[in-house]
Amino acid sequence: MNLKHDYRSIEEYQNRLEKKNALEALGIDPYPHCFAPTHDAEGLLEIAQGTTLGHFEEAEAGKTPLVTVAGRLMLFRAMGKNAFGTIQDRSGRIQIMFNRENTNITDLSNETLASTDTPNALKLIEKRFDLGDIIGVEGHLFYTGKGELTIYAKKVTLLSKSLLPLADKHAGLTDKEMRYRKRWLDLICHENVLKTFKHRSQILSLIRRHFEELGFLEVETPVLGTIYGGAQAKPFLTKLNALDQEMFLRISLEISLKKLLIGGFDRVFEIGKVFRNEGIDRTHNPEFTMLEAYAAYWDYNDMMRVVDTLFEKIALALHNTTRILFNREDGQSPVEIDLKAPWKRMTMKESIKVYGGVDIDALSDDQIRAILIESGMKPQEVKAASRGLLTAHLFETKVEHHLIQPHHITDHPIETTPLCKPHRDKAAKAEGLIERFESFIFGKEICNSYSELNDPLLQRKLLEEQAERKAKGDEEANPFDEDFIEAMCQGMPPAGGLGIGIDRLVMLFTNSYSIRDVLFFPWMKPE
Predict the structure, then answer these.
(1) Is the peptide bond before 37 cis (omega within 30 degrees of 0)?
(2) Which of 231, 278, 377, 399 is the most buried (most CB within 10 A)?
């Protein structure tokens, strides 16, 4: 139901408000302080499994297990002396049977009921309760004639009177934009959406456990700073009024975590929000969740093993297999992706040759520019680009969409990041390559990792180059960070580091098409 902002004027709101007032007049508190369920819907299925429960008569006589549950009333249908309803809690749904003679309402005395135009509690529930109300039910378990597990309600407690309706019971909440804007309705009406976000929480728990088992310590670092860095992105600007100071929301977790590495925390990780003032599309949101981890004395080879074993572990925990299905964007049959470790490894140049059909070593810079322009890039975008950036553009254009199965793409040009260690192979180092890998699944980058640069003099040189690019108008280049260089001069151990976009990871494991499907409250244009 598409409610206007002034929802108080709609008829449904007024009707429910009258019902609330009528219940209060009978001495029923529509918003009590607390309630104590003994089970949820899933727990009831577990205790009933393998047990011979009685039927209607045994439950009525109180000879079957007594349970107490709470949830939102989703269905209600009267059937003479009985009525059947369904309540929904965090774990699922359970059927409730209300009875004319034996169901009572908390705080409602027989004397009070007798003074109304409703002959029994069941009739009052039918007239004054609504779909969407949150109720508590105490009663006895039994199986209906059709074999459905049901609670014979002996006592019903109103826990929250809903004043606005749920989505239309036939059409449902189908408007995608409204589902994102009013996520609480989406969660109530769509069990699959609730399942997606439960999986998100489970995934975060699995990630934490994975890194803790490897000896990492979880930390928290500042969101606000006077400078930003660690990624190529345009920041959000804000102001600290107390100091009349310009501040930035962080675009990365990297710099702070490296300072902790310098301080002696050999293995650290953080899962936190970062903010990039960029475009919004199905894989980008201005604020998103990142995992970054750093381990002293490791390199990018160690981090590759951390990544593919992490994904393998999550797949097994969620799906009991490393093979998962992912829907195509074009609506064709889903693709099966195998996350079993180890994943395929290729250098960037190898991938361009294998998947793009281009031997970059046999081409001049101008020949590469011609290929890129033919592929749709604008001449001004490639005119002044160095060979390293041309290589990166060629990879993005010719290769990424082919990387459906998991790949680690290694050995990137140094121009792609100022924070990575030059390659240890002398020939690769002379060519301007660094020890960096990006992991790709279904044509999308899922992870970024380096053998971290720990030479403060080289780091200074690279950050100065970034600052020059920023001065020339590159909004995504990093400003110079003298504080970081000073910290590095204290001595940073050799280290491996990685960053994983949590939202894209959740998209993969929940087979979600858009990043908005895995964010509780994605950014939306104002209505």
Answers:
(1) no
(2) 399
- CB neighbourhood size of 82 (10 A): 18
How far is residue 491 from each of residues 24, 256, 296, measured CA to CA in Å?
A: 69, 15, 12
Q: At what angle do helices 254-262 and 482-489 cross, to 10 degrees?
A: 20
Distances (CA, A) of 320 to 28, 268, 315, 407, 526: 48, 29, 7, 22, 41
pTM of the full predicted structure?
A: 0.89
Measured in whole angstroms, how far is the alpha carbon of residue 465 from the centre of its chain? 36
Q: Name the helix (H) or strand (E) containing 202.
A: helix 191-213
Find residue 247's DSSP bridge partners: 238
pLDDT tens digits, 370-411 = 999 999 999 988 998 999 999 999 999 999 999 999 999 999
| H or E segment to which residue 130 belongs | none
CA distances from 352 to 308, 346, 437, 478, 493 (A): 22, 10, 15, 28, 33
Q: Which of the given ranges, 372-381, 463-472, 487-496, has the highest pLDDT on average?
A: 487-496
Instruction: Return the percentage of the chain with pLDDT > 70, whole number.
Output: 97
Query: Could you give the CA distance from residue 507 to residue 440 in angstroms, rounded to a whole number?
Result: 13
Q: What structural domains and CATH numbers belong to the chain?
A: 7-166 (2.40.50.140), 191-343+405-517 (3.30.930.10)
What single-letter amino acid sits at 211?
Answer: F
Cis amide leading into 342 (omega within 30)? yes
Q: How confident is the model at residue 424 (pLDDT cuts 50, 70, 90)?
A: very high
Query: What is d(CA 311, CA 208) in angstroms, rounded to the nearest whole number?
Result: 13
Enumerate the β-bridge partners of residue 410.
Answer: 347, 437
How far apart CA 407 and CA 223 sit, in angstroms, is 32
d(CA 191, CA 55): 29
